[in-house]
Write a structure and sequence with these properties.
The complex is a heterodimer of chains A (306) and B (251).
Chain A lengths: L2 E3 L4 E3 L1 H18 L4 H10 L4 H25 L5 H28 L3 H27 L11 H12 L3 E4 L4 E4 L1 H17 L4 H12 L3 H27 L4 H22 L4 H25 L5 E5 L2
Antiparallel strand pairs in A: 1-2, 3-4
Helix pairs in contact in A: 1-2, 1-3, 1-10, 2-3, 3-9, 3-10, 4-7, 4-9, 5-11, 7-8, 8-9
Chain B lengths: L1 H12 L5 E2 L10 E5 L3 E4 L6 E9 L7 E20 L2 E18 L3 H4 L2 H7 L8 E2 L9 H14 L3 E4 L3 E3 L4 E8 L6 E11 L2 E14 L1 H12 L1 H25 L1
Helix pairs in contact in B: 5-6
The chains are: A mainly alpha (306), B alpha+beta (251).
C-alpha cells in the first residue's frame, strides 16, 4: 500500500511513515525533545527529499509536543513563566540564526563547518550529561540533581544578575535574563544547525538554570510548541515545502508515541532519564562523526529545480 | 467486448483525436497511435497505473520492422550534485524528463542503432539537455549517466523489453507501467518504427496526469494561497496534538 504526497510528488508506504512517527514521538514524550534531529534523517532514509523532510518534521513535532506537553501539564510539570521567557529569547535567536545562516552559506561551503560544530557540541553536551548521570542512574548517589558544589558554581551566574523573578513551578528565584539568554542562544544554534533545539535546551535548563528534570521536560516541550509553529508557518508559506499529507500520517503515529513516551517517563527517575537522554545525544553525535569521517553519503544526488 | 474496444480505438484514430507522424513520403510506413486513457487522475491514493497504447501500422507483419513505445515527461530543470572527498560539484540540466518508460518488442539495441535511439529520445543517457554553454563540457557524459542512473534508482526510468505485442489486423498494443512516484503533468506517449536500426516513422499522443481531490486542493493552496496553507499546517498540528491530549487524557 502506498500514498501519494502532493507536495513531495512521490509515493510512500504509510506504515513506514507511521512507524517513524511513533518512534520519534516516543523519544519526544520521554525526554522532552522535539525529535527533529532524529526525524529528518529518518524521513530522508525513507526517500523523502531533504527540503520536504526538514520542513514537514516541524509540523509533526508541533503536534507531538502539544500531546507530550499536555501529559506534563496535567502532572503540573510545566513552568509556563519560564517557558515564556525562553520562548521570547528563542524566537529572536532563531530569526538572527536564520539570517546568519544565509550569510555563512553565501560566503562558501559551510556544510563541513556545521557538521564539525554539531559533533563537537553533541559530544560535549552528551559527555557531560553521561558523566553526571551514570552514577545516580546506577543507584550509587541517589538523584544527581541535588546540589553538588560544581553544579552550584555553574548556576551562580543566574543568581547575581538583576531582574529577579520567582518561578514557583521550578522552585527557582533567579534573574529573568538567563532564561532569555539561554533561549536566544539555543534558538540561534538551532537555526544555524538546522534542528529544533530541544536536545540543546533540555540539558541547558538542567545544568545552567537548575530546573528539576521533570519540570524541564514539560517546559521544554511547551517552548518547542511555539518554535515549531513559527517554523512550520514560515516553511509552508514561504518555501511551500510542508507536505500536509506526510505530516498528517506522521502525526497519527507521533502523537501515540508521544503519549507512550510521556507515560513511560513516569516510571523512570530523573537520573535515569538524563542517562538515557545522554545516550541518545551521544549516539547522534557518534553517527554524525562517523558520516563526517567516512563520508557515507552517495556520490551523486539529484534535485528537481523550480 | 475486446473486439468492440479495438474497433472504437481504431475508429478514433481516423478522427482528429490522435497524432500522426508528419506527412511522411509515400514510401514511408504508416504509423498512428491512441491511448486507452488520455487522462489519469492523481489523488493521494494514487499508487501508479498502467498505460495502454494502441497503434496501427501497415508494417505490422514485416519481421524486419521493430517497434518501441516511450512514455516521456513532464520536462523540468534538474541539478545533479557530486560529492567526492567533501568537494562538491554541481551540474544543471535545463530540461529533462521526469519519467522515461520504454516498452519494446525486444532489446532496444536490437531494434535501433545508437544514433537512432538518441534521435528518438529513448536513450536514457542522452535524455537530459545541458545549458548551451555546457554542451562541450568534458564531463557531460558523466553527468548524464549519473542523471539516468539516479532516475532508474527511483523507478522513473525503465525499459520493458517484452512490453509490446502485435495483434491481428495491423494493430499493436503496448503496456507501460507508470510508477506512483511519477509527478503530475503533461506527458507524451510516442511509438517508433525502426527498420534495420534506422528510425523510419514515429507517432505521438499526449497524456495528462491531473491532480484531483485532496491532492489538487492541497497543491493548489500551497502554490496560490501560501499564507492560508501555512496557517492550515499550524492548525493541523495544533488540532492533532490537542485531540491526542484530550483522547489520551480520557483514557
Amino acid at each position: 500500500m502506498q500514498i501519494h504526497l502532493p507536495i513531495a510528488e512521490l509515493a510512500v508506504d504509510p506504515f513506514v511513515i507511521i512507524a517513524i512517527g511513533t518512534g520519534v514521538g516516543f523519544v519526544s514524550g520521554l525526554f522532552g525533545v522535539g525529535g527533529g534531529f532524529l526525524l529528518t534523517p529518518l524521513l530522508m532514509f525513507a526517500g523523502v527529499p531533504a527540503a520536504i523532510a526538514v520542513s514537514t518534521q516541524a509540523n509533526q513535532v508541533l503536534a507531538t509536543s502539544i500531546a507530550g506537553a499536555s501529559s506534563h501539564w496535567k502532572n503540573r510539570a510545566v513552568d509556563m513563566r519560564l517557558g515564556y521567557f525562553m520562548m521570547g529569547g528563542g524566537l529572536a535567536g532563531s530569526a538572527l540564526g536564520v539570517w546568519v545562516f544565509k550569510l555563512l552559506r553565501a560566503a562558501g561551503n559551510i556544510d563541513e563547518f556545521i557538521a564539525i560544530s554539531y559533533v563537537v557540541f553533541l559530544g560535549i553536551v552528551g559527555g557531560l550529561m553521561f558523566w553526571e548521570s551514570i552514577g545516580p542512574a546506577l543507584g550509587k548517589n541517589g538523584d544527581g540533581n541535588k546540589d553538588p558544589k560544581r553544579r552550584s558554581a555553574m548556576r551562580a551566574w543566574t543568581r547575581v544578575m538583576p531582574f529577579k523573578r520567582r518561578f514557583p513551578r521550578s522552585g527557582l528565584y533567579i534573574s529573568m535574563l538567563p532564561p532569555i539568554i539561554i533561549g536566544f542562544v539555543v534558538g540561534f544554534l538551532a537555526a544555524v544547525l538546522g534542528v529544533g533545539g530541544g536536545f540543546i535546551l533540555a540539558p541547558a535548563m538542567v545544568y545552567l538554570l537548575g530546573v528539576p528534570t521533570r519540570v524541564m521536560i514539560g517546559t521544554s516541550l511547551f517552548q518547542i510548541i511555539f518554535l515549531t509553529a513559527f517554523v512550520t508557518f514560515l516553511q509552508a508559506a514561504v518555501n511551500q515545502t510542508v507536505d500536509l499529507v506526510l505530516a498528517a500520517v506522521l502525526m497519527s503515529g507521533g502523537v501515540i508515541g508521544a503519549k507512550l513516551g510521556a507515560a513511560t517517563g513516569q516510571y523512570l527517575n530523573a537520573a535515569q532519564l538524563r542517562f538515557l537522554l545522554a545516550l541518545v545525544v551521544l549516539a547522534m553525535g557518534g553517527k554524525l562523526a562517523y558520516d563526517l569521517i567516512f563520508g557515507t553519503s552517495a556520490e551523486f544526488a539529484l534535485e528537481a529545480l523550480k | 467486448m475486446r473486439a468492440f474496444t479495438l474497433f472504437i480505438l481504431i475508429s478514433l484514430m481516423s478522427l482528429n483525436g490522435y497524432t500522426q507522424s508528419p506527412s511522411p513520403p509515400s514510401e514511408r510506413p504508416h504509423l498512428s497511435a491512441a491511448l486507452a486513457e488520455a487522462e489519469i487522475e492523481v489523488d493521494v491514493d494514487f499508487s501508479g497505473t498502467r498505460i495502454t497504447l494502441f497503434a496501427v501500422s501497415d508494417q505490422w507483419e514485416n519481421p524486419d520492422i521493430g517497434f518501441a513505445v516511450a512514455l516521456v515527461g513532464p520536462h523540468r530543470p534538474y541539478a545533479v550534485t557530486r560529492t567526492v572527498k567533501k568537494e562538491k560539484e554541481r551540474f544543471e540540466f535545463i530540461s529533462a524528463p521526469a519519467v522515461l518508460a520504454v516498452a519494446a518488442e525486444k532489446s532496444l539495441d536490437e531494434i535501433g542503432s545508437a544514433e537512432a535511439l538518441i534521435l528518438a529520445g529513448i536513450n536514457p543517457r542522452y535524455s537530459a539537455m545541458p545549458r548551451p554553454e555546457n554542451i562541450n563540457d568534458p564531463k557531460l557524459d558523466l553527468w548524464r549517466q549519473a542523471f539516468a542512473e539516479l532516475k532508474a534508482q527511483d523507478g522513473l526510468f525503465h525499459t520493458h523489453e517484452s512490453g509490446l505485442e502485435r495483434l491481428d489486423g495491423g494493430l499493436i498494443r503496448a503496456d507501460i507501467d507508470l510508477p506512483a512516484a511519477a509527478p503530475p503533468g503533461e506527458y507524451d506517449v510516442r511509438i517508433f518504427l525502426f527498420k534495420e536500426g534506422v528510425l523510419l516513422a514515429e507517432a505521438e499522443t499526449p497524456l495528462e496526469l491531473r491532480r484531483e481531490g485532496m491532492e489538487y486542493t492541497l497543491f493548489n493552496m500551497s502554490r496560490n494561497h501560501p499564507i492560508l496553507y501555512g496557517l492550515l499546517a499550524v492548525l493541523l498540528g495544533c488540532c492533532v496534538g490537542i485531540g491526542a491530549a484530550v483522547f489520551g487524557g480520557r483514557r
